[in-house]
Input
Amino acid sequence: MVDPPENVRLTRRALLKIGALAGGGLVLGMALPTRAAPLPDAADAMSARTLPIPADPSADFVPNAWIRLQGDGRIQLVLARSEMGQGVMTTLPMLLAEELEVGLDQIEVALAPVGPDYVNRFLGAQATGESTSLRDAWTGLREAGAVARRLLINAAAATWEVPETECQARRGRVHHADGTRSLAYAELAVLAAGLPVSEPSSAPIPLKSSDAWTLIGTRPRRLDTPLKVSGQARYGLDVRLPGMLYATVERCPVLGSRVRHWRGEAARAIPGVVEILMVRHGVAVVAETSWAALRAREILEVDCRPSINGAADTARIRARFRAGLTGRAALAHRQGDVSAALDAAHRQIEVVYEVPFQAHACLEPMNCTADVKPDRCAVHVPTQDQQGVQETARRLTGLPAERIAVHTTLLGGGFGRRREQDFVIDAVELSQLLGRPVQVIWTRADDLRHDFYRPMTLHRLRGGIDEQGQLTAWFHRIVGPSLFARARPSEMSEGLDPTLIAGAANLAYAIPHRRVEYRRADTPVPVGFWRGGGHTQNAFVTECFLDELARLAGQDPLDLRRTLLADRPRHRQVLELAAERAGWSAPPTTGRACGIALAEAFGSVIATVAEVSASADRVRVHRVVCAVDCGQVVHPEIVRAQIEGGLVFGLTATLKGAITLSDGRVEQGNFADYPLLRFDEMPAIEVHLVQSDAAPGGVSGLGTPPIAPAVANALFALTGRPVHGLPIAPSAF
Output
């Protein structure tokens, strides 16, 4: 598990702060140095269920508080993470409700402004990604709830002049042991707000033991589901502001190219078109309606400057990467003497694997609405990086951060794509130029051709087996473009990109001699975070290579993994559970075979078995069985849903599309040439959760890494032909 950066790590006491609200109330939050941040108003709530933070300027308001008990009885959790289907709108309130002794139905969700209090400690910014939301909140939110509960009990005890031990909190009330007296939290809020909080050096207030939990580990209804079913859910494309215009931007198709000149006379004649102007990313068409903007863009004439990237294509990139499979490289891991072990090996193999560029293909294309005024700016956006949005707007407008409000809507898919700022730049720039609110909309072609893609990578692996059939040597060279060099250059060290080596440098298997290298090979293709990160490339490569080594050693792939995981009981448990539930030892159905794969990512471990058949025109995945150890499970059905979603996302990348280039252009432009998995291709999925008392691990990106190697290994078992590249071509079998 990745530790939070040192500069934002909190003590166990979470620096809890308490204050009173005007009108009566109790506020708790992580007290970090901060300045007041702008707050959302009612129009900016993502739904009727998600309520705004009161912004009464006369209130004694603490802007960094993320838990508040109102004098009218309302209990609010300030949601500082983006809800994009992963369930944080439900699981984080469950943590608070558990320790505060209230029902989930008594919690309201308020939207967080941008501020240091809401920093995700794992990411070092107010952002959502890398399966960190629940891990970041696990201790802090429960401690804040426990402190609030204790203060309310103290207030009730003082009111009744009885010992605290005679009082118990339940369903938003404090009850006396005599069974005749009780007070609602609302009645105690003002008195509780005046009570002192214990110093951080004192003994911490104990959290409830797991056997006393009434919410954690249960399956309450998700708070966002009724909103989506009823149509109240508000996504980025649902934002409407008075006087708002719509805009779409025509970008140059060649990566890195810029507009030379353009003609817009015919486009201007479209009714409703307000303006056509050149902006940073191309030529923008602005209109009174989205239809007019899109229609005018179709007939816009744009000429782009020649670019050195015009000759870039997939074949040339592949050739460049192949050249990097030898020569110098950065060392990611070294154990023993791989060269000597390979020389001494009884048998050895060498294989090259290729993983293509992949798009995110969020079902809601990129969009953003900005309203820039001379003295303030509001950005309404489905984003995974609120802090980045505020910084982008500050840089473009010159306004101070406290005058820039970021209003987060629900996200129609994120997968890492919405951590980028390109669509935010479009909206802020246009609103500033026109002096009116502007909603920028992207087409599906924009989304696929101007993405920040999962990096294409090539992998060279060598492995050695001794005379006893034991795996003794492992060499792995990764070649691909660096994501961190652009996104987080300060986290690059000794030429290593943490994402590109994830799951390879920290391989779980005990191999006496192992060496992992990374050779950076940047391309004109922009790359970014993708669901599952570098684990998705490296799990495919390492797990497929293990099956090839098992075949070389004459061993069952499951048995080889068991041997290599002798000192990893957690990994062995999920591996054996998945194999057992999948019926690994049973004779396979005629025409089918099973493949197994293991992945460790985001503080969790998953094993996946895929049952597969193949014909000349189709690879069919019939059944997928997963075993997951993600530590303590807060909401089992949300965990299962995330694993299933990750599997589907990964199956699309395994069997379907790849992003390819020709003459410097992305060739794919819609779901016709970048297809997604269809309903009739969906396998039956079983997800089995391992009981654990460990702190929660991440699951949002966990299902994606092992599905490709599980399918590939099943095909290897079925046909005897190993899979060395994605997506898998049925014609190869």
The chain has a mean pLDDT of 90.
